[in-house]
Write a structure and sequence with these properties.
The chain is mostly helical. The chain is built from eight helices and five strands; from the N terminus they run E-E-H-H-H-H-H-H-H-E-E-E-H.
């Protein structure tokens, strides 16, 4: 890819050469501010953007809004990606350039002015388990021990995400004002604390 000239941030400790490359400090530092799943998705998105720039012999600092619009239009024409995914790719590129601007590595954000596609959510695709399905899952989990039963209870009763439960530790489970709660890092790397009902707490306390 083009962009072999060294760019130096206002922070003297950070030196980058083609910051879109996976091994570069700028990219790693930018990604470090996101939760694991977001970090993984944004990394792929930046790879896609870097491939577009390489195919068009563009340095990352030379990209303009029309280039970003053309990139997204090309992805949309190929098909297979939802508007939600395309919007995330735009958000990733815009976030990266904004981060670079804040650290003195670039002057403009070519993705900032690109309008996001409209997403039409189908509520039927976001339905959770029915009461009978949830009950069946709980019955099945008992065959695998208390740990599995407690894990499923945190998901289905308390509404935690799988990643939130996996990242929680003993210190995350505590008493607050006479009630059991579990503190986790949720979507967007935001902390949240959720009450744990007595039936679920009994499983966790075993």
């Amino acid at each position: 890819m083009a962009g072999t000239d060294i760019e130096r941030f206002s922070d003297p400790e950070i030196v980058i050469r083609n910051p879109l490359s996976p091994e570069r400090d700028a990219r790693a530092l930018w990604l470090s501010g996101f939760a694991v799943n977001t970090r993984s998705a944004y990394s792929r998105d930046i790879d896609d953007w870097g491939d577009y720039l390489a195919a068009h012999h563009l340095d990352w600092t030379e990209a303009t809004p029309p280039h970003v619009a053309d990139w997204i239009a090309g992805l949309r024409e190929v098909g297979g990606l939802s508007e939600t995914t395309l919007n995330r790719k735009l958000a990733a590129v815009s976030s990266f350039y904004r981060w670079c601007i804040e650290h003195g590595a670039n002057a403009t954000n070519p993705a900032a002015a690109i309008r996001r596609g409209r997403v039409h959510l189908d509520p039927t695709t976001r339905l959770g388990l029915s009461r009978d399905e949830a009950r069946a899952v709980h019955v099945a989990s008992k065959r695998y021990g208390t740990r599995s039963e407690a894990f499923l209870a945190l998901l289905t009763v308390c509404g935690f995400r799988v990643s939130e439960v996996l990242d929680a530790n003993v210190d995350s489970y505590k008493w607050v004002r006479g009630s059991r709660v579990l503190s986790v890092i949720g979507k967007g790397n935001k902390p949240r604390t959720v009450p744990v009902p007595p039936t679920v707490a009994a499983l966790l306390d075993r």
